Amino acid sequence: MLQMMMQTRETSQSQEIYKKTWDASGEQRLVVSFQGAKEVMIITKDYLQLRHSSQYIYYILYVLCLNLKIIYAFVSFSIQIITTCDTDTRWSKENEILKSQLNDSASEMSKVKANEDEMASNVCRIGEELEESREEKAQIKEKLEFMGETKEALEAEMKTLGVQTEQWRKAADAAAAVLSGECEMNGRDGSRSLDKSL
Fold first, then answer.
1. Which pLDDT value is given to residue 40?
2. The predicted structure's pLDDT at residue 51
3. Beta-carbon neighbour count of residue 19 at 10 Å?
């Protein structure tokens, strides 16, 4: 009589997919494992004697169904691998895009930093020029104040000179009047003396 028993258990992932072994009692073990699940079929010696029976046909159908399950699992696993590869490819493309964006951002930041440095140097230069202009303005202010003081001194001196000139003019006019008066008197005296002599 055919003795057939199925045992299914979870194990760690195994690289083994299909294996037939014989144990010490003469039983044949058909071991099928995929993605951590292992299915073991134990076939006794009676099965070898009943190869042409209906139970053999049942066994063949069972093995075919088992193979179909294995093929389905393998196809599913392949689809998962392909999906994972596509995901990895998509992630790698996104990583490349992010890297290019980061590089663009870094170049933009370097340009902005260069512009900031240039603006800072321009501000420093403008500050120096402003300080120089302030110093020049202070110097010009001092010169203007000095010129104003000099102008006031000159105006005072010119007023003094004007007063002195007016006094000198009056003195000169008086001296001229005195001199002209003396000349007239001398002329009259001379004419009188001439008349007397005649």
1. 43
2. 45
3. 13
Whether pTM > 0.70 for this model: the answer is no
The answer to whether the CB of 40 falls within 8 A of the CB of 16 is no
Residue numbers in the chain where pLDDT is lower than 70: 1-60, 85-91, 182-198
Phi and psi (nearest 5°) for 18? -145, 125
Structure tokens at 172: 């000169």
Phi, psi (rounded to 5 degrees) for 10: -90, 130
The answer to whether residues 73 and 34 touch, using CB atoms and an 8 Å cutoff, is: yes
Domain ranges of the chain: 4-79
- Collect contacts of 35-38 with beta carbons under 8 A, ≥24 apart: 35/73, 35/77, 36/10, 36/11, 36/12, 37/8, 37/10, 37/11, 38/8, 38/9, 38/10, 38/11, 38/14
